[in-house]
Design brief:
Order of helices and strands: HHHHHHHHHHHHHHHHH
CATH superfamily: MFS general substrate transporter like domains
Oligomer: single chain
Helix content: over 70%
Strand content: under 5%
Number of domains: 1
Number of strands: 0
Low-confidence stretches: 4-18, 422-431
Shape: globular
Distance between the termini: 38 Å
Amino acid sequence: MANQLSSINKASKTAKKPKQSAALGFIFITIFIDVLGLGIIIPVLPKLLQVLGHINVNEASEYIGWLTFVYASMQLIFASIMGNLSDQYGRRPILLISLFGFGLDYMVMAFAPTIAWLFVGRIIAGICGASTSTATAYIADVSTGNKRAANFGLVGAASAIGLIFGIALGAFLFAINIRLPFIAAAAFAFANGLYGLFVLPESLAKEHRRKFDWGRANPLLSLLRIYKKQPALASLLGATTIVYIAQKAVEYLLSTFIYEKFNWTPASVGYLGLFTGLVLFSIQAGLIRYTVPKFGQQKNIIAGLIFYAVGLLLIAFVSRGWMLYLFMVPYCLGGLSGPALQGIATDKVARNEQGELQGSFAVLNSISLIVGPLLLSYVFFFFTKKSSSVYFPGAPYILAAVLMLISVFIAIKSFSKPVKKAKSIKATNTA
């Protein structure tokens, strides 16, 4: 009898693994498609703006800034709302609605007759992009211990691949038709949504759900509540915000920096981007699965942030273009910090608060998307304009490196603060 029960338990465990594996695969693809859309827009949007508005490149750049602002603002407003909705209704419906919303966004942009319709598309994309908080809450639901940080590494890997593949796909399809990249992105989103209808299981049991609370859905109040309840967690979130802002020096300025300093061709920038994406993927999908169990999450955070700072300083003073390939390696090793930061943070809140926490992460990312590109672009402009007394294109990377070192100090201080363990909270069953 004991042997039979043992066999049944083994069979049950074996049956569950493929299901969880399929679910994590779906989350990976969901985040991949989210970032894919951003990647596709990078090479295509300036030309599309020129065509729709009959404007030159300088005027198009102004529209791009406002489109980014609208997208980030919508993410800021809706990240906590989406996270809290997933705490009440479950992760699955929110993820599926967001995916179909992405498909709608890309179709709007593909057939937009005027620039105004592009803003409509970016509003939809910002709302649906807020579903990243739900996706990461899903990972928190189905992961435990060191595996949680490793699975959060999938988020970074999906982002890296999505961005690189998106830029390449956008450039390739643009050569065929200017609107084709958006149609392709819409097809991916709709296909993944349909796939999720049949594959994605719900990760949040009904007994762990809680009612939607507008107080919790307010992004700023949500952050304030975390600060009052969990000072150590609040410090970690503060360090994360600074890291997000500093990262914009590479995400939004690297190509401009390279064009200014080395006069590279777009193809050369693309090769560097491909190399960077592959290194990021290998670190966040592979290396972190060994470093977290071996050294622990705190050491991964500190090491990763120091690697970020070193990489940014090296980029700031690079003297030969080929050196960028070498200097991107320590910068990419900074990716060890992100999943570990999220892993520690998720251990400090209850299961039915994971959506709210991940919503807070998304809020901080949106804030950094509003602040980072504007701040660092202004620094770049100031130190590269003709009237500047000091010509130094690497200035934004010095600032970003300083921000990374500040985040190291904040993170270390947070580790010394008393930790309040996440307790089981009585949830209100809304079924």
